[in-house]
Design goal:
The protein has 14 helices and nine strands. By secondary structure, the protein is α/β, with parallel strands linked by helices. The chain has a nine-stranded mixed beta sheet with strand order 6-5-4-3-2-1-7-8-9. Helix 8 (223-234) packs across helix 14. The structure holds iron/sulfur cluster (SF4) (2 copies). Residues 240-241, 245, 249, 261, 263, 317-319 line the site of one iron/sulfur cluster.
Length: 386
C-alpha cells in the first residue's frame, strides 16, 4: 500500500461568507496565480516521493473565488505534473460561487465536493449568516446536476450542541451523511471562546452520535463515528487528526508560501518556505514550523505513552495544540478528553459485546443472536464498505 501524501492548495484566503466562528471573510484577498500552481507541482516533484499517493485538496478561504479559468488551467497541470503519484482531487467550498462551467470542469476530474451546513436553515443561518443556507443549496444543485458528489460538514458550536437532536434528524431525514466539526476557540477573534464547543460537550456529542449510529444502523452514516470505530478496530489512525500528519501534509497559500497544513495558512510564523524557491527536504526541516510539528510528535510519544489509545490517536491535531500557545508545545490537542471518552466507549462496548455477558441473549437456538445492534455490528458494516 502506498503512503498518503496530502497537499492542500489555498487559492485565496478570502471568502464571501461571514460565518460567526471564522476569520476568513475578505472577498478581495489575493488569488493564487496559475504559475504558482505550476511551481507547486514542480516543488512536489522535486521531493522525490516514490511510493506515495497524492491527494490534492483545494481549500480556503473560499477556493471557488479563483474562478473557472483557474481550475481549467490548474487541474491538468497538477494531474500531469504529479501523475507518478496518482493524484486524486477534492475541494472544500461553501458552493456560493459554483457555476455550471466550474462544475463541468470539476466533474471531468470526478472531484468530490465537501461543503458546510450546520443543520436546518435557521441554525445554519444563525451560525453562518443570513442567506447562507439558500446560497449553499443553490450551489449544491448546480454541482449535483453536473454529476458531482456533495457532502456536508456540520460545525457544532456551544449553542447548536443544545439542538443536536434536531440537527441529527435533519441529516438523517434528508439522507445526508453527517460529518461533524467542533467549533474551536478562534485565535483571531476578540471573543475566542464564544462559539467554541468545550471538550466535555464534544465528548458527550460523540457518544450521543455513536448511540444514534448504532440505533439507526441501516439508515445513517456518521462519518466521524465510522472513522473512530475504524481506528479502534484497526489500531491505526486513518484520518489526519488520528495520525502523524507531519512531513506528509503540506499546504500552499496564494503567494506560494508553504505551511504544514491549511489551518496555518496566512500565519507568517508557520511559513516553511515558498514553492518559487523549490525548497528541499533539508530546507523544510530547518524551518521553525517543521521543528514544532515534529516537537509535537515527540511530546505525544512521551506524554501519551501510558494511554491505551496512543497508536490511533497520536495526540490529535497539532494545530489545535500549537497555534493557541503561540508556538509552544506544552500539551496535546485540548480535545483529548473528548477523544479519550469516545475511544473508551467504543473499546469497552466492543470488548463487552465480543467477550462479556451482554454478548448474546443466551437463547437456545443453535445460532445465538445478539439482542440488538451494537458497536461490533457497526464496525462490521464499516469494514464491509471499504
Ligand atoms: S494540523 Fe490538524 S487538521 Fe492539519 S493535517 Fe494535521 S491533524 Fe489534520
Ligand atoms: S486520548 Fe489523550 S492521552 Fe490518549 S493518546 Fe489521545 S491525546 Fe494522548
Amino acid at each position: 500500500m502506498k503512503t498518503p501524501f496530502h497537499i492542500m492548495i489555498i487559492p485565496t484566503l478570502g471568502c464571501p461568507a461571514n460565518c460567526s466562528y471564522c476569520w476568513s471573510s475578505e472577498e478581495t484577498s489575493p488569488i493564487m496565480t496559475v504559475d504558482t500552481v505550476k511551481k507547486t507541482a514542480e516543488w512536489i516533484q522535486s521531493l522525490n516521493l516514490e511510493g506515495y499517493q497524492a491527494t490534492v485538496t483545494f481549500h480556503g478561504g473560499e477556493p471557488l473565488l479563483a474562478g473557472a479559468d483557474f481550475y481549467r488551467q490548474s487541474l491538468p497541470i497538477l494531474a500531469d505534473g504529479l501523475k507518478n503519484l496518482n493524484p486524486v482531487f477534492a475541494i472544500q467550498t461553501n458552493l456560493w460561487r459554483m457555476t455550471p462551467e466550474i462544475a463541468r470542469i470539476l466533474a471531468e476530474y470526478k472531484i468530490p465536493v465537501g461543503s458546510s451546513l450546520d443543520g436546518p436553515k435557521d441554525i445554519t443561518d444563525i451560525q453562518r449568516g443570513n442567506g447562507y443556507y439558500e446560497k449553499t443549496l443553490a450551489g449544491c444543485k448546480i454541482a449535483q446536476d453536473a454529476g458531482l458528489d456533495v457532502r456536508f460538514i456540520c460545525t457544532f458550536t456551544k449553542m447548536s450542541f443544545e439542538r443536536k437532536e434536531e440537527i441529527f434528524n435533519f441529516f438523517m431525514e434528508n439522507g445526508m451523511p453527517l460529518k461533524l466539526h467542533p467549533a474551536l476557540p478562534s485565535i483571531r477573534s476578540s471573543e475566542p471562546e464564544k462559539y467554541a464547543l468545550p471538550p466535555e460537550k464534544y465528548g458527550e456529542l460523540l457518544v450521543y452520535l455513536l448511540d444514534k449510529a448504532v440505533l439507526h444502523i441501516d439508515r445513517v452514516e456518521i462519518l466521524n463515528i465510522n472513522d473512530l470505530c475504524r481506528c479502534v478496530f484497526t489500531r491505526h489512525g486513518n484520518v489526519c487528526t488520528y495520525a502523524d500528519c507531519m512531513g506528509t501534509t503540506f499546504a500552499t497559500g496564494p503567494d506560494g508560501s508553504i505551511y504544514p497544513c491549511y489551518r496555518f495558512a496566512g500565519m507568517e510564523d508557520y511559513v516553511m518556505g515558498n514553492v518559487a524557491d523549490c525548497p528541499s527536504w533539508d530546507d523544510l526541516k530547518e524551518s521553525r514550523a517543521w521543528k514544532l510539528m515534529f516537537g509535537f510528535k515527540d511530546f505525544v510519544d512521551a506524554h501519551c505513552a501510558d494511554c491505551r489509545h496512543i497508536s490511533y490517536c497520536r495526540g490529535d491535531c497539532p494545530y489545535n495544540a500549537i497555534a493557541p500557545t503561540g508556538g509552544v508545545v506544552r500539551d496535546v490537542d485540548p480535545h483529548c478528553p473528548a477523544y479519550k471518552r469516545i475511544f473508551d466507549e467504543i473499546s469497552d462496548r466492543l470488548d463487552s459485546e465480543m467477550y462479556g455477558d451482554d454478548s448474546f441473549d443466551g437463547g437456545s437456538s443453535r445460532r445465538r443472536r445478539r439482542k440488538s445492534a451494537g458497536v461490533s455490528d457497526l464496525i462490521r458494516k464499516i469494514i464491509s464498505q471499504n
